[in-house]
Amino acid sequence: MKKRLSTGILVLFAIYYFLPLIGTILYASSTTWTKTVLPDDFTLHWFGQLFSDQKFIEAAGRSLLLAGLVLAAILLIMIPTIIWIHLFFPKISRMMEKFVLLPYAIPGVILITALLRTYAKTSVPMFIILIGALFISALPVVFLGINNQLRLINMKELVDAAATLGAPMSTIIFKVLFPNLRIGTTLVSLMVFSSVFGEYMLTNLLIGGRFETIRIYMIRRMNENGHLASAVMVLYLGFLVGIALLTFTITNRQKKLVRQRQTAAKEEKAVMRGAVENVLEHS
Fold first, then answer.
1. Residue 34 pLDDT > 80
2. What SS3 class is residue 154?
């Protein structure tokens, strides 16, 4: 009885969640949909019109540019800093675990108001301010993700072992740090890229129509043509699903690697134990 009840609740939640998505996909691929349960006819006209719209291409390009710049800043500045703090300043690392949650505690409207009051009358371009704001907003995801990865692989022990063996710092960085952080960095990069690509509030309030991204374009189209707006939503949903599947694949690969290492370690311990027992038997 309890199993049936839980299954029924899950089915209701699934219907509640997926029904709007299905409706959006149908509306984006329909000619008219007024009096019937299903659309009167299906077409790909709206997707074709969307890809022929120069403003849509430019909006997608701006979103890609913004996400790429923020991601590049994170890879070049934030991740090396997190590694440095974790290795040489562990006390600061423990403090940072609390401070990095501040972007979640500060409402976005307050952040935008503070940025506008501080930089509106300066010569600093608002595009640079936007990149900085998105950089800070990504701090919780990046810091916690990379810091947990560093703890998982015992990075400090690996670096100490490499230094003890006489490896130079360049070898430690490129042959010890980066290979072990490759999967964690990839996962964090995918999450940051997808969130910045679809960001709306900061971009709209700081720059607005002067820098129309894909989300701003979608909101504008909603007031003009619902079919085109739905087509944009479907494409954006497909992009997010692709990112999610890629993240899921990388996570599973990481889990398999961890299991293989654990199995190899257990087998090595078993072999060593057997060798010790063999020596003791013959002694």
1. no
2. coil
